[in-house]
Design a protein that fits this description.
With about 220 residues, this protein is an alpha/beta fold. The protein has one domain: 3-Layer(aba) Sandwich (Rossmann fold), CATH 3.40.50. It is built from 9 helices and 7 strands, in the order βββαααβαβααβαβαα. It has a 5-stranded parallel β-sheet, sandwiched between helices. Strand 1 and strand 2 form a beta hairpin. Helix 3 packs across helix 9 and helix 6 crosses helix 7. The radius of gyration is 16 Å and the shape is globular. The N terminus is likely disordered.
Length: about 220
């Protein structure tokens, strides 16, 4: 894979993975799958400043970007609020996207969820396979979680760094998928995390820039 620098982040772009709008005969549908950070929780003007909305504005009229983030959602099927059971998962499926960006794992670090850590990679692979089987045959990007600047609600940095991120990277290598390193992109920026867990509008812009660079192969 080629490494593309995005600020302080590294976006790993698989050759041939980048989206070329000219190759599509219709508006390119982008599904942003995730938790409260994708949803835009704690952003003052959430409707206008969450990262999928910012991404959609930047990508322009050739793309339709939708936010399928769910606050509190886990990737783990046995998690206390599993994304698999949420209406947003069904809606993202019905959207039949050409692009899927998955950013789940932060809530999985809560102790009541991480006790099922052994299931994380298998559940993640099942989600990848679910979206890959859609009629549009979407290109899929995995995201590392954002940094955790303070343990809250059970969400903790140790499980993100030592548990989630290595599993995401190993799964991406095995599946031949690219990883968008949002952890690095948002590291050293505690001022962008008012509650120490959720990025503000400025942080959402950093996320949108990294995701855009990845899907366009910049």
């Amino acid at each position: 894979m080629a490494a593309v620098a995005v600020g302080c982040a590294t976006v790993c772009t698989k050759r041939g993975q980048a989206i070329a709008p000219a190759e599509y005969a219709e508006t390119i549908r982008v599904a942003c799958v995730g938790d409260s950070i994708t949803f835009g929780a704690s952003i003052k003007d959430r409707e206008n400043d969450n990262y999928p909305v910012v991404l959609g504005r930047s990508l322009g009229g050739e793309f339709e970007v939708r936010n399928f983030g769910v606050s509190g959602a886990t990737l783990l099927k046995k998690g206390d609020f599993s994304y698999w059971d949420r209406p947003a998962f069904k809606a993202a499926t019905q959207f039949n996207p050409h692009v899927v960006v998955i950013k789940l794992g932060t809530n999985d670090t809560k102790p009541q969820n991480w006790k099922y850590a052994a299931d994380y990679a298998a559940d993640y692979e099942a989600m990848i396979d679910h979206f890959a089987a859609l009629p549009a045959k979407p290109k899929i990007w995995l995201c590392s979680p954002a940094p955790v600047y303070q343990t809250r609600w059970g969400i903790n940095e140790k499980s993100v760094v030592e548990g989630i991120i290595p599993r995401v990277r190993a799964l991406a290598r095995r599946k031949g998928l690219p990883v968008i390193d949002l952890y690095t992109a948002l590291s050293g920026k505690p001022e962008m995390f008012p509650d120490k867990i959720h990025p503000n509008a400025a942080g959402a812009r950093v996320m949108a820039e990294a995701v855009e660079a990845a899907i366009l192969g910049r």
